[in-house]
Amino acid sequence: MSFPLKKSLFAILASCVLLLAACGTNKEDAGNKENGTEAKKVLNVGTEATFAPFEFMDKGEITGFDIDLLSAAAEEAGYELKIENTGWDAMLAGLQGKQLDIGMSGITIKEDRLKTYDFSVPYFESTSMIAFNKDVKINSAEDLKGKKIGVQNGTTGQYSAEDIVGKNSSDISKYETAALMFQALQSKNVDAVVTDIAVALEYVKNNPDNGVQTVGDKQFDAEYYGFAFQKGSELTDEFDTALNKLFENGKYEEIYKKWFNEEPNLKSLQE
Ligand code: ARG
Fold it and tell me: Is ligand 1 within 6 A of the CB of residue 66?
């Protein structure tokens, strides 16, 4: 092969490489926003999946209201989700340590949590509820005094119980997951648990023979769930835009009805 030919071959090859590289970058750019077949950016999501109907395991798959809603929002915003059942503490630590992009766990938006994480717009209204074994007498939150109480560690159920019986009360047992807390109730290691209203009601619905009853109390404040993001993350705005779209286009309502069999009260979320 003569030298000039070699040179032009090299030039052709080089431009092919450049062209391919250029195609590659274009593809990635488009992939973030378009809903075609292009690869979308994958976001890592952590959850504590023993919290039906929001997130729970069904035949080995993580499912629930939160999963449907966050998936619809991700679709709208042009992202793919990789959801992992990390557990509650690891989810929060993973967000703080920036290994996770989103925390999805029926997480209540709270003043002190806002110092560490960003939150989406509120997507669900909740409050604490007491679930108790029917052989103990509990008619109101005040009746928790002197009872053995189970809570999921680091959740608003714990704080609601502490408001009644005191922060360092030895009557409060803290469990790592909502499932362990309900197990303690079932095996009568505790008289009552304090958890989120929809979760308490779902437990009773799914375990009608366990002799568990529920009671609420006006002392328990209204709470609002949000998806949690790393502090300062640009994803927060992108997911807010997506969620607001789902509130408007009927998709939120559809998902809500699927899990709760009733119409959502969108006004109370947007107040
Ligand atoms: N809403 C309560 C809180 O944020 C409880 C959430 C617990 N979530 C769960 N997936 N176990 O403190």
Answer: no
